[in-house]
Design brief:
CATH class of the largest domain: Alpha Beta
Strand content: 25-35%
Number of helices: 9
Bound molecules: flavin-adenine dinucleotide
CATH superfamily of the largest domain: FAD/NAD(P)-binding domain
Number of strands: 27
Number of domains: 3
């Protein structure tokens, strides 16, 4: 039996590792667009950007461990097409890789502003090269504007402040991460960033970038105001990398659409940020962009390939680190959920908040209280793994 995995990062690597762990002794190919050995992304906005880690430390496995997996690692050769019927992947260099099972693990790519490409001083953050370029930019920066009030924008603002850079965070929401965490925790994040000297220009859409002689000079807000900047990071979300699947016959709508076994077509699966699968507990299609899902979904896909007939029904989990605050989230938070503090005290900088909808706990969020937050996970699991809970989340 042959398996080809497209995308040599968190989900792709976890798929081949899980296959070997489960006893798969067939032929494995891991195909990557990047020339680098697989590396991890969460440190890119934290330890790598701050300089606390050398870039090599983000590498997921040593060359020796990778070679022990007995996998054909084909790097710097992106998948360029898929024939789902014959499960054949065509690569940019012209390889034709036929397999019994194909796994799509090609992740997402950052959204951009029209006209930002080629403008000096403007960055996105997805790859190690992006992190190193931004770090070099920040070293010489006087004024950074982060466009994007989501988790990535907030983390970049925090790391840049720790480097002493003057930072303004701009975005359309009233509070950072409001659409994910709601106004209560969003308000606490506002206070946190303000206390660390970040200027928040929220509640206003960014309409474009100003430039002179090919270099960014500012960020234009709705209403005409311009925020001066010599470095700008655009962190306005990402899109699944599915263009290479055009014409494959797979359904790609905000990700590769899969059934509850993470199967997009007979013998074709998807895992990680690119996968939008049917979560049976929620009875809804879900796509998660977080590190834990990349590993857990890869393990589920490996199981499906080997004939385990089990739905993938995780309790989503992610974390974010900003300054000295570590936030953990179990479940699916909803901004309109009813939020109550069930442990600790926000004023003391440590608490657990429970998110409830229609009387059911849909998520818990911990602020510097990881253990106590984890203890409440079963409450969330009870709601999210209840089969066909009727869309209460
Ligand atoms: C800066 C940053 C910080 C983050 N911090 C956190 C955090 O604190 N907590 C958390 O839970 N999550 C965090 N995440 C999210 C987490 O890193 C992702 O969810 C995870 O990397 C997803 O893994 P993946 O393998 O699905 O996708 P990716 O990591 O995006 O990997 C996809 C791979 O596919 C390759 N590829 C693309 N196109 C092709 C092609 N055509 N052929 C072959 N290969 C291709 C890409 O080069 C890439 O290597 C962060 C992400 C970023 C960018």
């Amino acid at each position: 039996m042959k398996v080809v995995v497209a995308g040599a990062s968190a989900a792709g690597l976890a798929t081949v590792e899980a296959l070997r762990r489960k006893g798969f002794d067939g032929e494995l190919t891991l195909l990557g667009a990047d020339a680098r050995l697989p590396y991890d992304r969460p440190p890119l906005s934290k330890q790598v950007l701050s300089g606390a880690w050398a870039p090599e430390r983000a590498q997921l496995r040593t060359a020796a461990v990778l070679s022990s997996l007995d996998v054909h690692l084909l790097l710097d050769d992106p998948a360029a097409g898929l024939h789902a019927g014959t499960r054949t992947v065509r690569t940019a260099s012209g390889r034709e890789l036929a397999a019994d099972a194909v796994v799509v693990a090609t992740g997402v790519r950052p959204r951009r502003f029209p006209g930002q490409d080629g403008l000096a001083g403007v960055h996105v953050l997805r790859t190690l090269e992006d992190a190193l370029a931004l770090r070099a930019g920040l070293r010489a920066a006087e004024r950074l504007v982060v466009v994007g009030d989501g988790v990535l924008g907030a983390e970049i603002a925090a790391t840049a402040r720790s480097l002493g850079v003057d930072v303004t965070l701009a975005g359309p929401q009233k509070f950072p991460l409001e659409s994910q965490f709601g106004p209560f925790v969003g308000g606490l994040l506002t206070a946190l960033h303000t206390a660390h000297g970040v200027r928040l220009r929220l509640g206003t859409a960014v309409t474009g970038l100003d430039a002179r002689h090919g270099r960014v000079t500012g960020v234009r807000l709705d209403g005409g105001e311009v925020l001066p900047a010599d470095v700008v990071v655009v962190a306005i979300g990402s899109d699944p990398v599915t263009g290479w699947l055009d014409g494959s016959g797979l359904t790609c709508e905000n990700g590769v659409v899969c059934d509850s076994r993470c199967r997009a077509a007979p013998g074709v699966y998807a895992a990680g940020d690119v996968a939008r699968w049917h979560h049976e507990g929620l009875d809804a299609l879900l796509r998660l962009e977080n590190r834990t899902n990349a590993t857990e979904q890869a393990m589920a896909v490996a199981g499906s390939i080997l004939g385990e007939d089990r739905p993938y029904v995780p309790v989503p989990y992610f974390w974010t680190d900003q300054y000295d605050v570590k936030i953990q989230v179990h479940g699916v938070l909803h901004p309109a959920a009813e939020v109550s503090v069930v442990d600790g005290d926000p004023a003391a900088g440590r608490f657990v908040a429970r998110y409830r909808r229609d009387g059911a706990t849909v998520g818990v969020l911990g602020w510097n209280m990881p253990k106590q937050t984890r203890l409440r996970r079963p409450e969330v699991a009870e709601t999210l793994t209840r089969v066909h809970c009727g869309g209460t989340v």
